[in-house]
Hints:
The structure is a homodimer of 244-residue chains. The first copy, chain A, has 244 residues and is of the alpha/beta class. In chain A, 29% of the residues lie in helices and 25% in strands. The first copy, chain A, contains seven helices and 13 strands. Chain A has helices spanning 20-28, 36-39, 58-70, 88-97, 115-123, 143-155, 173-184; strands spanning 4-9, 31-35, 49-53, 74-79, 106-110, 124-125, 131-135, 159-163, 190-195, 203-208, 221-225, 231-233, 236-238. In chain A, the strands form three sheets. Chain A has a five-stranded parallel β-sheet, sandwiched between helices. In chain A, strands 7-8-11-9-10 form a five-stranded mixed β-sheet, sandwiched between helices. Chain A has a three-stranded mixed β-sheet with strand order 6-13-12. The first copy, chain A, is elongated. Chain A starts with a strand and ends in a 6-residue tail after the last strand. The relative contact order of chain A is 0.15. Chains A and B meet through helix 1, helix 4, strand 5, helix 5 and strand 6 of A and helix 1, helix 4, strand 5, helix 5 and strand 6 of B.
Amino acid sequence: MSGWLAVAGLGPGDEALLTAEVRAALSEATDVLGYIPYVARIAPRPGLCLHPSDNREELARARHALALAAAGARAVIVSSGDPGVFAMASAVFEALEDRPDWERLDIRVLPGITAMLAAAARAGAPLGHDFCVINLSDNLKPWALIERRLRLAARGDFAMAFYNPCSAARPEGMGRALAVLREECEPGRLVTFARAVSTAQECILTVPLAEAAPQMADMRTIVLVGNRATRRVGRFVYTPRRAE
Amino acid sequence: MSGWLAVAGLGPGDEALLTAEVRAALSEATDVLGYIPYVARIAPRPGLCLHPSDNREELARARHALALAAAGARAVIVSSGDPGVFAMASAVFEALEDRPDWERLDIRVLPGITAMLAAAARAGAPLGHDFCVINLSDNLKPWALIERRLRLAARGDFAMAFYNPCSAARPEGMGRALAVLREECEPGRLVTFARAVSTAQECILTVPLAEAAPQMADMRTIVLVGNRATRRVGRFVYTPRRAE
């Protein structure tokens, strides 16, 4: 059995942000699986079978990829950003729990540039000190837990990065998160909305918390919240390395 | 004035984890600056001046690079991992605060694969749910703040990634952090020590918190702590996407 499964991160959008490791895996693959817009980023070629699927199909996609690898395929599941951050790697290991016979397969996770780091780089260095990373979607956890984490993060004066601030199914997450932040943080706290980073649609907007509005975020936006010391210098936003 | 400054992430060690964007910047550079072992990763070539410096010289290095760019150089400051995560990007913006005349320079931050994501990928998917990122060095902040953040992160049931768990100057950080975690978390909580990820010296060790010991970490180690639900499947460690 010579099949393998790679769970690979494509980075936030720009091809220049792929690693050579991911490029190599893609060039050797017989099958590429993933959410429709991510598979659309892969150039077709003879001998490569593309398997796009919907974004609620994570577990089925993971099982399909493992079954392909078990049958001898060289399968790559593609995620945007990094596969280990709110993406496909956890779903693959979840699928593996039900199938001990697949545990000995050659499975590798190939890291990618996750959206928050690409967004932070474009803004300056807003994550330059301790920070928390929170998925604002309440699809897989209760909102009460998200709210509790937001409050603890603010009380610890962590900078923050939010994934999935809103979606068609749950448009209210960003507004609720801003309401919690307004209770915990000063109105001048800097909030960066980074949309479609590294693509032609890129838009970076930094505003004080008092001016932040839910409609500044959409499905393609990462939100970065500074800590108490985060400030502007020229056109950049940065969080100092030092803290009291 | 055609000079520029790129603050670039080299990833954790393996050349295959560099992005094409960083490779391109390095190929155009006239000057590369950075901590001695990171500059040692750059191949010398005619027309390229290498400026290695000690790791306590961040601000002086940032000023030097900005001055070079202002004088027309194509300067790259190299960091290991990602420049925005406990690396050189914040120091550059700090240096910029004193020199408004440098604010209009062409300054770009080029993201890289930060060590925690490379470590998580090797271990499985321990950061597959909300997580906190904490620098355990008390060089630039008081230990009391680190301890407070550790407790808040544990109480929010965040997974955690620790940078700089110990150094020659401060060997006690890891032991103190483990003592705090033992007060806040159950003894079976999974802790992964990931040393020198993606290099020939790579070593990944996952143990329950009860068995974790400070000497499992050194200067080249990233420590990943799971949340309450983090578990093993086969040779992997992963944090489920779902939480109650």
